[in-house]
Amino acid sequence: MGLTEANNTFSISGVTYNLTGLSSGGLSYDNTTKLFSGQGQATNVSVSNDIDTAVANVQSFVDAYNKILAEVNGDITQPRYKDYPPLTDSQKSSMSSSDITLWNQKAQSGMLYNDPTLTSLVNTMRSAISSPVSGITGSYNSLSSIGITTGDYTEGGKLYLNTDTLRTALQANPNVLNQLFGTVGTTTTTNGVTTTNTSTQGVAGRLYDGLTNTMKQLQQIAGTTATASYDSSSNLAQEITNYTKQISDAKDQFNTMQSQYYTQYNAMEVAIQQISSQSSWLASMLGTSTSSG
């Protein structure tokens, strides 16, 4: 059975072939007729699993995962110093720049301490890694079975890779990484909404969906811009708007009360002056009457 391809580079069953020349033997090419003649020598092609590259890629995944996890865990465990509120301009005027910097570091520390959104993300990431992928036949149905395990609980879910275990798994099942990471998973659709069964979903899909959902939640909470002036729909932007309105209302109320008190004070001053004048008149009249008697 012959095989004809239009180009020298083509793929069959996931393997890419790049033909670089003619095989040795009696095969020749006629530039006029654009045809081959003769009988070329048979060429054998063997394909083997590149285990070294696979192990290196898995190690890169483990390193990237640990970096993200460390950053998120660092944010939700950073201590909060409640005795260091934001400084006022008056307080800053009596402090050195170095003291202000140190104070602000304490004041800004722990802003995301035990943040529920980030805590949920960590739990989602750890579940995506630790849960087996159902539907895979054989013993290699989880990351731990191929050498990707978590350390002590105090490390917050940090991953470790046993390369010997991974190499053994790849030799036994060259497709194991595709099964564990790339399995799409079964889906169900209800009222037009499609949901993926995470138990049958590969690790890559679980992590992608988890990170995407968290990013949407953070976008709703904090927006996508660096300043609130360009954001009016996020939760924080709405809180800022509400606080700004409360401050404005409080200023208006203060100005109204201040004006009312000034009016009352001026009226009291006028009344006091009138009483003073009347007292003086009475005193003068009483004095005159006494002298006349």
How would you describe what is shown here?
It is a single chain. The chain has 293 residues and is mainly α. Helix content is 53%, strand content 10%. It is built from 8 helices and 8 strands; from the N terminus they run ββββααααββααββαα. The protein has helices at residues 51-77, 89-93, 97-108, 116-130, 163-172, 176-182, 203-222, 235-292; strands at residues 9-12, 15-18, 28-30, 35-37, 148-150, 159-161, 187-190, 193-196. The chain starts with 8 loop residues before the first strand and ends with a helix. The mean pLDDT is 87.
Q: Layout of helices and strands, plus pairs?
A:
Elements: E1 9-12, E2 15-18, E3 28-30, E4 35-37, H1 51-77, H2 89-93, H3 97-108, H4 116-130, E5 148-150, E6 159-161, H5 163-172, H6 176-182, E7 187-190, E8 193-196, H7 203-222, H8 235-292
Antiparallel strand pairs: 1-2, 3-4, 5-6, 7-8
Keywords:
293 residues, mainly alpha, two-stranded antiparallel ribbon, 8 strands, 53% helix, elongated
Q: Overall mean pLDDT score? A: 87
Taking all Cα atoms into account, the compactness measure Rg is 39 Å
The coarse overall form would be elongated
Largest sheet: 2 strands, antiparallel
